[in-house]
Amino acid sequence: MLNQTPALDLLFQALADPTRRAIVERLSRGPASVSDLAAPFAMSLPAIVQHLAVLETSGAVSSSKTGRVRTCRIEPNGLRAAEQWIATRRASWERRLDRLDAYLHKMKHLEARDGNKH
Amino acid sequence: MLNQTPALDLLFQALADPTRRAIVERLSRGPASVSDLAAPFAMSLPAIVQHLAVLETSGAVSSSKTGRVRTCRIEPNGLRAAEQWIATRRASWERRLDRLDAYLHKMKHLEARDGNKH
Lengths: 118, 118
Description:
Largest sheet of chain A: 3 strands, antiparallel
Oligomer: homodimer
Distance between the termini of chain A: 55 Å
Helix content of chain A: 55-70%
Mean pLDDT of chain A: 90
């Protein structure tokens, strides 16, 4: 559970590519067909389809087919899993820094008080 | 700026490996020496050093050397960049869903009102 292998492997791997991030960026503004997604890229349709397959396998994107058109959309739960994994570790580290800061502050205060006694 | 290539490539790539995530997990509880980090893994020290190099290059982790001991720590700004990239796209998608929901709600309301008129 802790590191959710291999789900997180696939999610972070999917997001490690600039074309795939650009696809997620585009889909964050609304669902789009595969050919709409391919249009802005100087890339073959099969290459885009391959990138979409990586995104779908990772759980960041889903798609459905109506007639001959496949429509892709964001899967917020997939993205949230990757986001929360990072957020939890960062928050844990920052809480640790806060505690350290509070401790140093207390030590300084005690030292100042003891200094006044002597 | 939008997709911050190659910084985000390196960050997501760094997090796509379970050993490197376990290292980040360990470091989120406090700084550690390279040998402390290596201890829980059934892996050679050079392999761990290699994983640490990937994490350092990505900006998720930093290290400093005192005498013969290299100490590693989390770089919260690095992690935050990856986290915020995801959060922004997810939030944008969710806002879109909210607007769509509000629109459908309004349409239903208008339809019900018009239905009452006739």
